[in-house]
Amino acid sequence: MVTYLIRRLFWLVPVLLTVSLVTFIIMHSAPGGPWDTSDERRQVDAATAKSLSAYYGLDKPMWRQFMAYVIGDTNSQTGKYVCGVICGNLGPSYRQRGRTVQDILFGAPEGKTFWQSRFGYSLRLGMMALSMAMLIGIPLGIIAALKQNTIVDYVALLIATSGISVPSFVLAIFFIIIFASKLHWVNILVDDWTQVKYWFMPMSVLGFGTMAFTARLTRSSMLEVMRQDYVRTARAKGLAERVVVMAHMFRNALIPVITILGPALAGLVTGSFIIETMFSFPGMGRAYVQAIGQRDYSMIMGTTVVYALLVAVANLSVDFIYVFVDPRIRLEE
Amino acid sequence: MTVASQPETHNIASLNAITTPSRSLGQEAWSRLIRNKASVVGMFIIGFFLFLAAFASVISPMDPLKLHSGKKFLPPPFDAGQTKIKSEAEFLLGTDSLGRDVMSRVIYGSRVSMAVGFLPTAIILLLGTTIGMTAGYLGGRADNILMRLTDVVYAFPDLLFFIIVMVALRDTFIGQMMNGLVLLFAALAIVNWVGVARLVRGQVLSLKQKEFVEAARCIGATDFRIMSSHILPNSLGPLIVSAAFQIPGLIITEAILGYLGVGLRPATDSTSFFITSWGTLMLDGQSAINSQPYLLLTPAICVALVVLAFTFLGDGLRDALDPRMRGTQ
Q1: Neighbours of B36 (CB within 10 A)
Q2: Do A216 and B329 touch (CB under 8 A)?
C-alpha cells in the first residue's frame, strides 16, 4: 500500500514535466514572437525585440530554453544562476514588466494576507462553492435515496441532471440576466470584493454543477449501501431508523463523496476562469484570461503548470483519502 | 438476451421458451429507448437543431451578415426592453451591435455546434477504438504505454490545452482553415480519444476472457477476425453511450472557447458555411447585456437545450443498451 502511494507520488514528476513540455512546445510554435502586439497597436521595433529576447533568454536554442524554464540557467547578463519551475520560479511576465508570474498569482498586495492574492481569491471562491455544494448536495442526495421513486426523488434527480449538464457559464448568463439585469437584485459590476454579499452570485453559479454531481453521487451511493447486509442486520437488531440511517448508511455512503472533495476543489479553482471573467472577480482565472488576451506567454505557461499541479495533486489525494477513510482497502493489500 | 427457440424434441425446454417473436439486440434496445420519454424528447430536440443546421440558409429569415444601418440593438417585439429604441416586427429577436438579425445568427450558429458535436466525435471514436482495441488485445508494452499516456492526458486540464492551442496556433495555416474550426476539431480529438481508448481497452480485457472468444480461437479465427466480429460488436453499447455523453462536452467546449474569443473566427463573407457560433454570439452579447439581453440569452438557451437533450438521450441509451446498469447512476 505504502509503496503504491509512493509510486503514485513519483508519477507526478513525469506528468508535470510532460504538461510543461507540451505547453512549451505549443506556445513556442506560435508564429510571431511574444512581442508582436495585436494588429491595431504599434509593433515593437526590431532592435527592442532583439534586446527583449536576449533579456528573457529567448535567443537561446529551444531545448536550452525549456531546461532553463524547468531547472534553471545562468543569466546571460549577470552570470548568476536563476532557478526554474522546480524552485517555484515561473519566470518573468512578458507583459507586466518587472513582475514574475508567481508574484502575480500568489503575491498579495502590500500589507495584505495571502488570501488577498489572486490565487487566494480563487481558492476562497472555490472553497465557498465547494461548501455550498456539499451542504446542499449531500442532504439532497440522501433524501432522494430515502424516498426513491417518489416525486421528491424525481425533482432531486431533475435538478441534479440539469445541474450536471448545463455548463456553469450558461447558468451564469441566466443568473446575470434574471437577477442583475431584470430584477436588479444584485450588482454584477463589483469592484469591492471585501464584502461577502457580492460573493454569493459567483459562488452559487460555480458551485451548482458540483452540488448536482454531489447529490447524484450521494444518491447512488446511498442506494447501494441501503441494500447491504449490515443495514438489514442493523434493522433486525431493532435499532431506531434514525440510527440506521445516520450511523450505518450515511457514514458508509459518504466514502465516495469524501474522496471527490479534492478533485472537486481543484476543478472549482481551475475551472472558475470563465465565471471569474464574467463577474470581474479578481482571481487567478481572470488573470489567465487576461494573459490570453495579451498573449502573455510566460503567464499562460506558468498558470497552466500551476493548474496542472493542482489537478494532479487533487487526483492523487483520492488514493490517499481512500486509504484513511475506508479500512477495507488497507486490509486488502 | 433473446432466447433462441429450442428444438421440438426438448419438451421441458420448449415449455420454458419465451413465445414472443425473437428480436435482435438492436431492436430490443430501440424499443426500450423509445419507451423512455426523456430520451425521445432529447432526440426530437437534437433532430430539430440538426434540421436548423442543415437548412440554415433556407430557414433563417434574414441574411445573418447584413448590416441594417441605423437599426442597432433593436429589442425583440415581444419584450421592449429598458432602452428607448423601438422594436421592429421583422427582427424576431432584435438586432446586435451592428444591426444584424439575432434570430438568423443564432440559427446559423447551430451549424458550428452540431459540427463540433458530431465530427470530432467520429474521429475520436475511430481513433480511440482502434488504439484501445490494439492495446487491450495485444497487452504488454503497447498497453503499458497507452495507460501512461492516458495518465498524462488526464492530468492536463483539457480546457486549458484547447485555449493554449487555439491562442498559439491561431495564425498558422491549419488555424486559418475553415475559420479555425479544423484546428479546434484536431485539438478536441487529440485530448478526447484517450477516454474512448481507455474504455475500449477495459471492454476488450474483460471480453477477451469470455467463452465465445475462446471458442472462436479454437476454430482457428484470426486475431483480426476475433477483434472485428466478436469483441467490437460486444463493446458497441458502452461506446455509443460514451459518444452520447461526449458530444455535449464538445459543444460546451466550443461555446466556452467562442465566449473567450479564441474559438471560431466570425466570418464576414457570406460564402463561408460557418458564419458564427453560439459562443461567439454570447461574446457579442456580453457587452450589450442591458440593451439587448437576447443576444446573450438565446444562444445560452440553445446550448443548455442541446446539452440537456444529449444528456437525456445518453441516459436513455445507457438504460436501453445495458439494462443491468438501470437505476444505479
Answers
A1: 18
A2: yes
Reported as half-sphere exposure (CB side, CA atoms, 13 A), residue A108 has a value of 10
Residues B141 and B206: their CA atoms lie apart, in Å, by 18
Alpha helices in A227-260 (DSSP H): 229-236, 241-243, 251-259
Could you give the angle at which helices B102-138 and B278-286 cross, rounded to 10 degrees? 130
d(CA B52, CA B309): 15
Q: CA-CA distance, A206 to B286, in Å (whole number)?
A: 18
Nearest to B157 among A292, A300, A308 (CB): A308
Give the span between the Cα atoms of B13 and B6, in whole angstroms: 6
Alpha carbon distance B226, B210 (integer Å): 12
> Which of A20, A26, A158, A170 is the best substitution to test chain B (most B C-beta atoms within 10 A)?
A170
CB atoms near residue B325 (< 10 Å): 13
3-state secondary structure of A72: strand
Pick from A249, A21, A4: which is nearest to A146 by CA?
Answer: A249
Q: Find cell 446498469 and name the residue.
A: B325
pTM exceeding 0.90: no
- How far is the CA of B148 from the CAs of A33, A228, B166, B223, in angstroms? 33, 36, 26, 25
Which secondary structure element, helix H or strand E, spans residue A10, and what is its range? helix A2-10
Put simply, the answer to whether A165 touches B286 (Cβ < 8 Å) is no
Q: Does B126 touch chain A (CB under 8 A)?
A: no
SS3 B46: helix
Nearest to B249 by CA among A216, A271, A157: A271
Q: Cell 433593436 identifies what position?
A: B74
Cα separation, A165 vs A153, in Å, equals 18
Q: ipTM higher than 0.85?
A: no
What is the rounded CA–CA span in Å between residue B10 and residue B16? 10
Q: How far apart are CA B149 and CA B132, in angstroms?
A: 12
- Cα separation, A303 vs A284, whole angstroms: 8
Give the pLDDT of chain A (333 residues) as one tens digit per residue. 677 778 878 888 888 888 888 888 888 777 666 666 555 555 667 777 777 777 777 777 777 778 777 777 776 666 677 777 777 778 777 777 778 888 888 887 777 777 888 888 899 999 999 999 999 999 999 999 998 888 988 899 888 888 888 888 888 888 888 887 777 777 766 667 777 778 888 899 999 999 999 999 999 899 988 888 989 999 999 899 888 988 888 888 888 888 888 888 888 888 788 888 888 888 888 888 888 777 777 888 888 888 888 888 887 887 777 777 777 766 554
Question: A324 to chain B, minimum CA–CA distance in Å?
Answer: 23
Distances from the Cα of B239 to the Cα of A192, B188, B200, B236, B306, angstroms: 49, 18, 7, 5, 20
Dist. CA B33–CA B323, nearest whole Å:
11
Number of H helices, E strands in chain A: 17, 2
Cell numbers 446575470 correspond to what residue? A176
